[in-house]
Amino acid sequence: MSMIVKGDRLPNFVGGKWCTSNTRDVLPVPNPATEEVLALVPLSGTAEVDAAVRSAQEAFLAWRETPVTERVRILLKFRELLVQHLDTLSRTLTEENGKTLNEAKAEIWRGIEVVEFAAGMPSLMKGEVTPQVSRGIDMEMVRDPVGVVAGITPFNFPVMVPLWMVPLALAAGNTFVLKPSERTPLSAVRLVELAVEAGLPEGVFNLVHGGKEAVDALLCHPGVDAVSFVGSQPVAEHVYKTAAAHGKRVQALAGAKNCHIVHEDANMEGAVQSITGSAFGCAGQRCMAGSVVVVLESVADRFLKDLVAVAERVRVGNGLEEGTEQGPLIRDEHRKKVLERIEQGLKEGAVMLRDGRNLVDQMDRGFFLGPTILDRVRPEMTVFREELFAPVLSVIRVKDLDEAIRVVNRSRFGNAAVLYTESGKAARRFRERVQAGMLGINVGVPVPAAFYPFSGWKQSFYGDLHANGKDAVEFYTRKKVVTSRWFG
Hints:
Blueprint lengths: L11 E3 L2 E3 L6 E5 L6 E6 L3 H20 L2 H17 L1 H12 L3 H18 L2 H4 L3 E7 L2 E9 L2 E5 L7 H12 L3 E5 L6 H13 L6 E3 L4 H9 L5 E5 L2 H13 L3 E5 L4 E5 L5 H13 L9 E7 H16 L19 H16 L3 E4 L3 H5 L9 E4 L6 H4 L6 E7 L2 H9 L3 E2 L1 E5 L3 H10 L4 E4 L15 E2 L2 E3 L5 H7 L1 E9 L3
Parallel strand pairs: 7-8, 7-10, 8-9, 10-11, 12-13, 12-18, 13-16, 15-16, 18-19
Antiparallel strand pairs: 1-2, 3-4, 5-6, 6-22, 11-21, 14-15, 17-20
Helix pairs in contact: 1-8, 2-4, 2-7, 3-4, 4-6, 8-9, 10-11
């Protein structure tokens, strides 16, 4: 049974206890579809961050000595509880984020996959031994946990992203302090409740609500050994530079501007459906969203006619209502910024093909923006250069695949790129030349499975070791090499 009561002030969780924040600064957490206030989130300060970190430090000594098999059994119980409470957790996620229930369930299952991957830690943490490297001397490499890990997570995937971090970090023997987005803090509270029910000892998993002050306190705290972050590019750069300057291991996943290339031999029906889901699913508020279509001129008019027709049929509304395909944006201030960027794109020469702004005045409440398609976009335009994080799709026309690849590579981001084609030759050329870390061939949202790294390039990632896969095991552990000789 959750302790969350609608409209209440949310507590922090430190040292195995729920506690009221000392701050007077709170923010309302509205349902972005209805504007109903779901809770009040405290903007905790440096002292409360310090208490959480110290709690994690104290718990680390015993937790690291807990056999990895015992740590994994707790995670398996946690996984069982996530599945058991899937429906209620999905509803909480939809209410605070706005995405549809189907999208919420898919997000949670993606997170559960990481819990399942983390359950393999007894094998993933295995070291190496080389006997007799010299006469009578053996050498071995073992893995130790890093220590206290701070996780700073975004609003757009308030369940999945914490589950990218927490299970792997804990399975490796680290303790954790989570600072969730102040826009979507309710899901984090539920995750902590379920983790405690699964049997995590006191202090192993701590939760501190807050904003920039709490983030900076974590980045600078001498008791934090590693920082994992997901969010916008400017904040990711700040997190990386600040935490690294304080001697911490850092992975900071940043923004994106993912381009989808439509080749002349593409299956047009499949491409249209895939791009519609990628661009407008989750209201475009995901770093894997297809936000640019680079289409060969020879097929552009036919493709765009079909794309607009499908976009017109996307049902926008409250994510809790059956049949809804796209929910609202997270806040009205974000929607206003997006509307400004759309207007700027039109002034710079873009042509409106499908105007989702009409929906703004049609809805009585909520922060809605319908699917929007801008044609005749050029790479120098702001709508191409900047991440909008919205259901806005920019269309660039090119003469051939080589020009399309050059357009993709002009972006300062390198998260994902997709090619729609039936040609193996074109797919190979795309794979070899495109500067992005996650590629799709006829796959609209090429998110890697939990056992592969989430490998953004360029300004989509700051650090050396990515989230998930073997990279995550490397990130949450330190290597120790032991050279042994026994006399006698």
